[in-house]
Predict the structure.
Amino acid sequence: MNSFTPPELITAFPEIFLAIMSLMLLMLGVAGKEEKHKTVSNFAALTLLLLAGAVYRFCHGSNLTFNDMFINDTFGAFMKVLVLIGSAVSVYMSTHYLERQRIMRFEYPVLIMFSTLGMMLMISAHDLISLYMGLELQSLPLYVLAAFQRDTVRSTEAGLKYFVLGALSSGMLLYGASLLYGYTGTTEFTHMANVLNGTGAVSLGVIVGMVLLLSGLAFKISAVPFHMWTPDVYEGAPTSVTAFFAIVPKIAALALITRVFMGPFGHIVHEWRQVIVFISVASMVLGAVAAVRQTNIKRLLAYSSIGNMGYALVGLVAASEEGVKAIMIFTAIYMVTSIGAFAVVLMMKQRDRMVENIYDLAGLGQTQPMLALAMTVMMFSMAGIPPLAGFFGKLFVFQAAINAHLYALSIIGVLTSVVAAYYYLRVIKVMYFDAASDDTLDRAEDRRLNGLLAVSALALVLFIIAPGPLLTTAQAAAQSLFAL
Amino acid sequence: MIEAVFFYVFATVLVLSAIGVITARNPVHSVLFLILAFFNAAGLFVMLGAEFIAMIMVIVYVGAVAVLFLFVVMMLDINFAELRKGMMKHAPVGALVGFALLAEFTWMFKSWSPSSAALNGVAQPIPDQAAISNTHALGEILYTQYVYLFQISGLILLVAMVGAITLTLRRRPDSRRQSVAGQISRRPEDVLKVEKITSGTGVF
């Protein structure tokens, strides 16, 4: 018999709590005859929000548990707080939309909770197997959510496309993981780092394994060349689901990439740097160029998210504590901007019907000046125009790249940022300078969306006054990743 | 000697039936070939001394997955000829990518060697097969060292189930269901009425 000590459960307390709450809400939804989706949905948002507070307050330091497969550190806590807030907001803002579309069912918030749980497990992964399991638990609900409007062809197609491509990416990831396991003889990150550190020349098998692993992960953040699914899925999925896709899962996948490439592969930076540089440059360029011709706002935001992931990866290329800090600040600001932008998209209605074309926004500057102003803040922030928060997100990322002597990469980044500014500014131009057609947008009356939009716009504008809390938290979190 | 013979028999049939899966015109034949392939793979696992995986292969893959495939193929009216129409058009590109991958992996495996430090970090060394059976050895670590992964697998399966129900279950107002509780709790005095009818008058 092996001697066995039970694992320390308190380290994984947030995850265990979330798992139990999801199961309870599932039972609450199933039991009884009457529809309970409102209760379940509100409870879900509340649970996620409270948990974000708890993680922020209590998760510090760096603790391993479950046979070293699970790590809870300050870096993970920072990312988990973002994920939890993003999920809570996604649930909170989707209720009215789903009810109007007549597709609200209690499974929706429950699936989002399970997906969030998967993301938290991803962020805490400290082993190749737990990495994969977290990834699957995160993706599976997303496939279902994409097809949630099951009576429309577009939504089912989005779900199916996402599922098939997601399965392919999982296959690549697993192949990569098996090669890495075959070379290093371990799946645990610390051991792996030691083994890879000891060898002088890196075996070809490790490089192939690493690249395959990265392909699987790059699919999840929709970085070029694994981005094909993004515009179609974003367009086809119900808008509230698109909002969730844009806001949350990428944070988790980005955190996972950062942990893997700073941890086990931290000693072989020279082997992976050029790969990430390629992915990053390709994403920035494609995100900027392909979005120019889009007229559907969901597709536009899809390309914008591809480009933004490129910027985030610039911070990873720097491979320094400063770079990781920049990634975290960038993701936090990007999340707030996405929340605001999708709150506006969810409000885009004409005579009670949802519309998605950019030109439907025409004349918004006259009919609803406040809404247009908030959208302007979102677009300016995404374009990276000072003094809005989006500018600082990009500033930190490029600063980290320049300090790591990556001048070419920074210049390409700034140039693509200028190109991308064109289509963000076009949205603003349509709102203020295009003549309104006969059909203007309905007045924004959804209190929840208005509130969220106001909060995120204010956060982006006021960031410059008090950037301190975010910066110091990110600093501490980045340090914890390198402390091991 | 006899082992080599069995290995080659299993391996040959496995490869042939795998080719059969993708070449058979009739989808039902494809699934049957698939089942044959699973059986032979199970045979290979037994020869490797991995009898637990062999059993799982037969029970799960043949018993559940392949039979489910068979159901789906037989119940859904899919025109496979129609589906395959575009295949020849894309086949050259697919073949090119496939060969490129094959060449890369061959190149990689030619220079493959595990790290010298690999054996130091092995989490679970393979126990002596004579002393402990496969199933027992797996059971000892699956619910202890790997309990975390075991639990997540459970959650993933639950999500799969919830997802499948969400996407397919429809309330049908026109279908009549049996309500067992309703039937049992029916009492004669609630539903039967005995009327004394005097001749010459009606009930109403």
Summary: The CA atoms of residues 107 and 148 of chain A lie 10 Å apart. The first strand of chain A starts at residue 62 and ends at 65. Residues 153-184 of chain A form the longest helix (32 residues).
